Every structure is written in C-alpha cells, then in structure tokens.
Amino acid sequence: MFILTDFLHMILLVAMPPLLLGVINKTKARLVGRVGPPVLQPYYDLARLMGKGMVMSTTTSWIFTVGPVVTLGAVLMAGMLVPLGRFDAPLEFTGDVVLFAYLFGVARFFTAAAALDTGSSLEGMGASRDVTLACFSEPAIFLAFLALVKLSGSLSLTRMLLGPGAASAGHLPIAALMLVAAGLFIVLLAENGRIPVDDPGGHLELAMIHEATVLDHSGPLLAVILYAAAMKLMVISALVLHVVLPVATGWLLLDWLIFVAGMLAVAAGVGVVESVMARLQMRHLPTMLLGACLLCGFGFLLILR
Amino acid sequence: MWISSPMALVTATAFWAASGVPALFLPRRSSAGQLAGTGLALIGSYIGLVAAAIRLFSTNPVEDLRWAGPIRNVACVLRLDALTAFFMLPVFLIGALISVYALEYWPRQRHPRSSRKSQFCFGLMIAAMATVLLAGDAITFLIAWETLTLAVFLLVGDEQNAAPTRRAAWVFLASSHFGALCLFGFFALLRSTTGSFDLWPASLEGISPNTATAFFALGAIGFGLKAGLMPLHFWLPGAHSSAPSHISAVMSGIMLNLGIYGLLRLGMLLAHPPAWWGATLLGIGGISAVFGIVLAAAEGDFKRLLAYSSVENIGIIAVGVGLALIGKSLDRPAWIVLGLAGALLHVWNHSLFKPLLFMGAGNIAHAARTRQIDTLGGLGKTMPRTAALVGIGALAICGLPPLNGFVSEWLIYLGLLHTLTESDPGKWTWTTWAAGAAPALALVGAISLVTFVKFFGTVFCGQPRGRAAKCVDPPAAILGPMNILAAASILIGLFPLALVGILGRMITWWSPANTDAGELLGRLAPLGWLTAMGLILVAVVAGVLISLIRYQREPVLENITWDCGFARPTSRMQYIGSSFSQMLEELFAWFLRPRIELPRLYTLFVGPTTFRTQVSEPVLDRGVMPALRSAENAIGRARFIQRGSIQAYLLYILGVLLFLLLWK
Questions:
Q1: Which of A29, A277, B248, B597 is 20 to 30 Å from B404 at the Cα level?
Q2: Using the beta-carbon criterion (under 8 Å), do B438 and A95 form an inter-chain contact?
Q3: Who among A116, A145, A297 is closest to B457 (CB)?
Q4: Which residues pair with B614 in a beta bridge?
C-alpha cells in the first residue's frame, strides 16, 4: 500500500510539472482568443533542449554548471516532503516543514551564485531581485506554517496538510484557511516568477527576475533549469491546494483524481491571473509580498483566537 | 585521573599563557620564537582538548580545585563542570588552528615590529578565556575577564597605527569596561546574597523579585555586551574588522561565546526564573538577528560584514536560550530541550564556520590587498581552494542543509514551533511571543542568503577585478586549518545524531529537573532523518550531474557572456556587491539611513562622476557617540576643580575625610 502510494507520488512529481506550464499557457492563450500551443508543448521543449549542444561563457566556472543541478536536486527533495494527493508523502518526519522551506533556500543560493558566475550585469540584477524578494516570501511561508501547525498540532508537512481535514472536518476555520491560502497564492506567483511579479514570457532583460538569472544557460542545462522551475511551481501549488481543499472523500483513488484536477485548476488560476493583470512596478513588489505576510499572519491570528 | 581534572586544564592554560614568552627573548626577525610558541600552544591545546572532551563524556560532571589565596577568607577556586568543558573545546580547538594559521599569515619576517607582542597577547587571550570559563570565584573571574580585555585591546590596535583602528580599539576598551562595571555589580550582589565569592551557586531560592531583577539586568548587560547583542553590539564591527584576520576569527568565533556562557550561567541561578527573563532574551535575540544581518547585507567591507553576521548568529543563539528560559519558568521540558540544544549546537557551529570565513577573508585581504567587496571579482579562478572553503562556510552560515548551521537552526525552529502544539490557553501569550520568532528567523535566513551570496558571488564569481589575476591560493599551513573547520562543518551537518548524547547531558546539567533530556531530544527531533535527507540530496545532485555529463553528446562551445548585445562585456560592467544588495538596502533605508552622494548629471556630455553610499554603525554613530559628547560637555563644566596643584588635591582629601568623620 505504502509502496503503491509512494510510486504514484514519484510518478506525479516527476511527470506532471511541465503539464502545469502547458495548462497555464493554454489558459492564457484561450482567454485572449488564441489557439495557443498544445498542452504538451513544454515536454517537447524539454526534449528538444536535451538534444542540443551547449554554449558556455568563458567567464564561468564549475559553479555555473553545478548551480542548476543543485537547484533541481533541492526542489526534488522538497517535492518528496509535500503530499501529492490525500496520502502521506514518501518522506515524512517531525520538522520536515523547516527543511522544506530551507531546500528552496539552497536552490536560491546556487541559482544566484551561478548567475553571478557569468559576470553579466543583467544576471546579477536578476539574482539580486530574486534573493531580495525571497526576504518577504519566506516569512509569509513561515506564518502560514504557524497557522497550519496550530491547526494540526504537528510539525510534519504531511500531517499539517492532511491532518486538519481528517480530524475535524466540521470545525474547520474556513476564513482563516482562506486567508492563508490567499497569502500562499501570492507567494506561489512570486516564487515562480509569474505575472504580476515577473513575466515568464518577457524579453526585456532589464525588467526580468527569474528569467534573467539563467540568460547564459543553454541546452541540457537550460532544460534542467526549466524542469526544476516547473517542479517548484508544482510543489508550491500542491501546498496551496491542500490549504484550499482540506477535506477528503475517504476513497484514495477518487481523492487522488480530485487532487490532480485541483492542481490543473490551480495552474488554470495562475493563467487567469496572468491574463487579467499587468505586471506590477518593481518597487511595488515588496508591498505586495508584505501583503502576503499580513494575510498569512491574520490567518494565524484567527486560528489562535 | 590527572588528565580529566581541572589541573590538566590549568596546565593547558599555563602552556598557552607561556606560548608568547620564548619569542620575547629572541631577535625580532627570528622565526624560532614563533615556532616555539606555536609548539607550546599546540601542546596546551592538546591537553586542554583531551581534558575537556573526557569531562563532557564523564558521569561525574563537576570537580573543584581550591587554593587559599593571599587574601584572608578568599580562595582561588577553579571549577571544571560540563558547561565549562563544552565552551572550553572551541577555545582550544580554534586557538590551536589559528596559531598554525598565523605561522604563514602573520610570519615574523613580515611583521617584525608587532609580531612578538601579537603572539604574546594572543597566548594571553586564549589563556584568559580558558580561565574565565574555569573560574570558580568572582575574583579569578574578573581578573581573567580584564586580562582578556587588555590582551584584545593590544591585539586590535596591532595592524597599523591608523586612526580608525585606534578608535576601534578605544571603543572596545571603553565599552568592555562598561560591561565589566556591570559584572562588578553583579558579583557584588552575588556576594551580598550568598555570603561568599564562590561562583555559580546552584540556586538562589528565596531572593526577592527585585534582587532577581537586579541580577538579570546587571548580568544581561554585562554578558550581553560581551556577546554583542543588539543594541550593545556597537563595539563589535570596528574591533573585528580592525584586528588582523586571525585575531578577528578568535574574537568572533570564541570570545563572543563567553557572553553566551555568562547568560547560560545567569539562567542557572534560579530554578524557576520569571518568564519575562526568557521573553526579553528571546526578543533581544530576534532584534539582534534581524538587524544584525540587515547591517551585514548593507556592508561593503567584508570583514565588517562578517562581524555583523556574528551579531546575527549570537542573536539566533539568544533566541534559543530565551526559549529554554521560558520553558524553565513554565516547566515545559520540550522547550528547554529544543531551545537549549539548538543554542548550544549553534555555539559550536558558529565557532567552526565563523573562524573559517574570517580565515578566508584573511586570505582574500592578503592576496588582493583590499577589504572592499566592490573592488573584487573573479577570485575563484585564481584562488579555487579558498573559494571552495569560503563557499562551504557561506552555505553553513546561511543555515542551508546539509551543513551544520541548518541543524542548530532547525532545532531552534522546532522549539519555537513546538510552543504551538501544546494546548494550554493560560500561557498563550508566551506561546505567541515564541512562535512569532519563527517568521523572524525565516526573514533572517533569507537576508543572510542575500548577504553571503553577495560576499561569495561577487568576490569569487564573474570576471576578475582588481588584483584578481595576481592572487594565488595560500600555502598548506593556512589551508590545512581551514580544511579541518570545513570538514567539521560538513560532518556535523550530515551526522548530527552523534552529538545527541553530549547535548542531552548538557541540558540535564543546565536544568537538573530534565533528567532524561537526551532521550527526549531524540524523540522530539529526529536528527537521523537529517542524515538521510542530506545524503539523499548529495546523491541526487551527484547522480544528475554525472548523468548529464555522460549524456551530453552534442559539442560544448565556448563564447563570451551574453550581455544584451554588447560585443565585449568587461569586468567593469558586472554587478558588484553594492549593486547586489542595493534593493535590500532601499527596503531597509528607514533603519540603515545610508548617506548617499548622487552623481551630478547636468550637462549633455557627462564626464567621469562618482556615486557613493555609506552606512554608518547606527548605535555607535547615532546613539553612543553623540550621547557621550554631550555628556562630556556637561561634565566639562566641573573641570574647574581640577587645579593641577597638589595642594588643592590635598585640600580635597582633607575635606572629604572631615566630612566622613562628621557624617559617621
């Protein structure tokens, strides 16, 4: 039984991330009346990149190569800690929630160091913005964790996300959870470089954040970066989805299908936000992320009450 | 057994105190004195390490050594207990590594003028720190404490006779004496309460709340100043950055620990300290951590950056100690165990990675002849070993898994979050207070990432700037000690389970009510999982990397960096440290208040111009110095009584004596 669920988890974690990107792009295209690329386009892109050669800058050192790989490893580890569906994550222990947050720190450190390794001012700019904005999303995530810890009485991510629904389906503090979910959704947009924080389709280097940090990577290394980014989107989406949908039907397979559908819905939601909003000015981003902290903080206070 | 007795540590201390002596009798440029001194220091460290390690594992945790002193009723007491042994280990380990490092870093031939004094004071400094930890009576403690201050004062003003260095040394001396004044008061109060100078009485039950408050206030200021807790950190950045790097490493890595040691002893005075003690310490720790790291991020001098990051790390330790104190007053074993285990482990961890980073900083400063991050770049190519070692230190100090900084921060996080899982509505104020520190620590973690990506990324990565092309890695005597520290950081990060026994015994020693602390720690904090996760992470990264390299069929071409269509990007275009942290500085401008000189761009064809920002130390330059200056003005009015003639002073004495006679 456990082996089966772990297997399902790993399949989902490894195979699904690019699909979310495809859904986002399809949603955006349909909303403005275009046909848009096929939903599976990100898979084709990754496959094509894997077959290409690489151009390495003469300025770079081993950090440039290792950076994306460590990022992928860290995000993969984080993905093994968050439950995908209504069953336990493959790895679960008391305190894994702190590790979960810090694994993204590992990813960020190496992405930023690899960006600075190229000696490009544009990549430095992107790295600087990336690590600075994280100074606001990290506290927001921890405020959300406080609320979930208080609600579930546990310090493991699986119990925190699955516990509330199983224990007290009738007495869920819906308002508090919605505040936390709203805060986490903003974090999701910021951490994954979606509009209104960053434009993944942008082509002006000066205005980019996440894309700017990887300007010089090409070929298989770029594929690793894009894949890791998609996986990060998926992992944080799963976090948001569990807060939005804390209840379960009790049938494992049905719950699992509901979860997969929910993930696609979150992706579609991101696509809708991207279609109806413009990018915010760079100087307004900290204010927005502070708003995410406040939403999570108020959610925590509502639960404490 | 002699080796595990306090006598062994006295011997080790004596070796250290004597380590600078042979050189005093040898010619200035002879390296024999330095070698002999290092030999004595290594012997001392070896004895000290063995003695302290045995004491950590022994079942008999305390042993006294008592000498009747020259003063009646006052004996010199040296006491070796578990807490002493725990703090003693880093003193002797770092001391030994630094004295080896100094053989190449501060050789006699290059510094003939100062090197003999420097070695003598360095030996005295280590010996004084060991004696502070060993002291079992207030007089020995204060003598050692003041000796330490004087030795460090002489070492800080060592490098050049420059005005900022002298100012830093004087600020250090003055503020240390202010701290010592508080400790004089503290020990006097202790003497009047217990009736003896013997230190660290088991418990002071039955004292009035006001006395307890006085104890806490005097102890927290005296020890907090030594630890560098905000706002008493103002002496720290100047002193750390002015001293030679190997001295900075000792100051930051082990001298600050003495403050934490004192705070822990303060927490042991009462079996049930008031809850506000812990809450205050937790709050001060949080403030130190957040604002310390903000100042570090804004700093352009990498040694000052490292100094401010010490304020941050001491703050994190204080958060753990504060949580343990709250737990002690409310009888929550889980809070005590997790808070104290995290704090103690962070003490050790900080003693490992901070000297590592300061040694790396010394290598850079020595090779590139500057301490300004903005003038550096691309050193990783010419100094690959230093780059790798500093990289490990940077990852560890950011608290990133799988290195040791993460383990201790994880324990503190667990303790803070654990406060939420216990449902006791009566005490929820302290719960919220403690839990609120978790997002603050997350903020600290994120800003320290900015700080150390700035340090590591802009100094070692990118195109060579400044003297980068001429820099080379230092010789083995310098890299060897650094390798040991880096290896220890990795080992503690990967196998923290090995330390559970020691931490458990320490917790039981600190809070005797928790008899099974080690077992409880193992239950609350599954450290074995961190080993598993760390090894899996390393395996996954290695696996992906190897398969990528083996998979690569298409050619790998080399070209210049894409710079928005520029054909020849130069090193002057790349992002420097100040630009990297600029966004963060703007967000915290309300606290940092940077002085900005904007370039004047008025004509059509603008010539060369400058842009400059500078952040001054907020407490020293905006608080302490103006206050002292106005105090000087006020007190200066009383200067007329200083006549400078001996008759006048004799008259004053006569007057005072008459007054005292009449008054009694």
A1: B248
A2: no
A3: A116
A4: B595
A26 touches chain B (CB under 8 A): no
Q: How many CA atoms lie within 13 A of B272 on its CB side?
A: 7
Query: A119's torsion region: left (phi>0), alpha (psi -120 to 50) or beta?
Result: left
Tokens of A81: 């800690």
Q: Residue A224, CB half-sphere, CA atoms under 13 Å: how many?
A: 29
Q: How far apart are CA A221 and CA A232, in angstroms?
A: 16
Residue of A nearest to B431 (CA): A304
CA B596 to CA B607: how far, in whole Å? 20
Per the CB < 8 A criterion, the answer to whether A126 and A212 are in contact is yes
- Supply the pTM of this predicted model: 0.94
Of A98, A220, A293, the CB nearest to B413: A98
| Distance in angstroms (rounded) separating the CA atoms of residues B140 and B657 | 32
For chain B, give every domain's residue range: 620-663
CA distances (Å), origin B659, targets A36, B363, B646: 98, 62, 20
- Beta carbons of A50 and B558 less than 8 Å apart: no
Between CA B255 and CA B140 the distance in angstroms is 17
Burial class of B632 by CB neighbour count within 10 A (0 to 12, 13 to 18, 19+): exposed
Q: Please state, in angstroms and rounded to a whole number, the distance separating the CA atoms of residues A224 and A69.
A: 7
B421: Cβ contacts below 8 Å, ≥ 6 apart = A149, A150, A153, A154, A155
What is the tens place of the pLDDT at every residue in A189-242?
A: 999 988 888 887 777 777 788 888 888 888 899 999 999 999 999 999 999 999
pLDDT per position as a tens digit, A98-126: 999 999 999 999 999 999 998 888 889 99
